[in-house]
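Budget justification, computational time. The allocation requested in the original proposal was used primarily to generate structure tokens for proteins on the priority list. As evidence of use, we reproduce two of the resulting records. The first is shown immediately below.
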Amino acid sequence: MRARSKKAVFAASSDNAGSITVCGVRTVSAMLEAGRLRYLLVTHTSNSRVQEILYKAEKKSIPIRQVADVELVRLSDNSQHQGVAGLAEPPVADWRQLLRRAEAPLVVLDGVTDPRNLGAVLRVGRAFAVAAVVMPSRRSAPLSAAAAKASCGAAAFVPLHRVTNLRRALTEIKQAGWFVVGACEDAKISLVDATPTSSSPICWVFGDEGSGLRRLTVENCDLLARIPTVVGEAGCLNVATACAACLATGANRWFPE
């Protein structure tokens, strides 16, 4: 294992504005597989899964440093780091190219502030091959170590795009030919009964679990639909579960031919 000083590793990381800290075997492995891992920090090298990561990182000439467990805990937002963490550059969507990707659905998050919810949505997005996840640059969850870990590796493959004005972004999405569907528990139309007015690619919009979609966001949706659930405590789904339900429902009926 090559020796690297703490100062050298983190001085270099400060030059990468789009870099994030990732932790956990699955997340670090995914970033390594995707060619997005830039530095590697380990503490429990006796673990066979960590040893495999070390071997692959060495072959790719990725800088490696062994650190104390307490340092990995600090860097990983107190998440279970499993003895490994690193610095990675997650994929970022190019806005113009993104709007031309009509072969895959698009997910927009309005006011989702919990990093673990963001990570879970990225995981769902990876499962359904979404074009990207779009969210406001302010008052939204950061792609932190906790979010990346909750994504179970999906943060290495699903592009995340931040916009300064969500209303304007939705307008541009619609102008590019997407059909925008907002998930709203108060909507009159059920998801299973909803039918788009065209064969356009679908853009799904999800709000915060507490407050839901904001008024301006609702006004920029082509359709509002609710997920049919039983009345009671089970009726309110978290944002990642709602996302999965919508993408699964639309997978067979709403994808363009």
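The second record produced under the same allocation is shown here.
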Amino acid sequence: MTDQLAPARRTGVIAVLRAASAEAAVRASEALVAGGVTGLEITYSTPDAPTVIAELTARFGDAAYIGAGTVTTPAQAEAAAEAGARFLVSPGTRPDLARAMLATGLTTMTGALTPSEVMEATELGVHVVKIFPASLGGPGYLKALRGPFPDAPLMPTGGVTPGNLSEWFAAGSVAVGAGGDLVSGADLAAGRYDEVERKARLFAAALAAVRG
């Protein structure tokens, strides 16, 4: 499990990309990497997500940590693995889906919010428990979960900003997922990739400050 966690820990910030087109996803990913955010979660709400994953993997290789998000079926997990994804993320935890994701051999992250859901995810053996939507409870909620689950690998997604990044890590995050606060739908729709890169630099600087 340590090996499966290592890339996520190193990457620190994983951008959650929900683009209206494959081209927009690729261009946003280029802007993110240029800005210093190398964790790229290409969600299945993006058209042709496996194609985007394959293109980004060919383009960046080991310089970026590329995976698939919003995985809701075993077929999606398999397609992402074939495209070269290194991790899989589901918004929730379903035993059949979690097992299919784990069967690919890729780092598996499934969503949870309540203590019962965290228990189910960890019992299934997923590598990372995605606390979503983390904005509902903030860093204080993540810290509270650390009480009964001191060793659970938790990754908050939702409500993560450069301004509170240090609080999330202080609360015990192994990594964080950042969606609209990093790659907003408005920026993508307007083609403001320079703005995506600017925000990525803010996240990268905040992460560097956390790491001293």
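A brief technical remark on that second record: The domain at 2-210 is CATH 3.20.20.70 (TIM Barrel).
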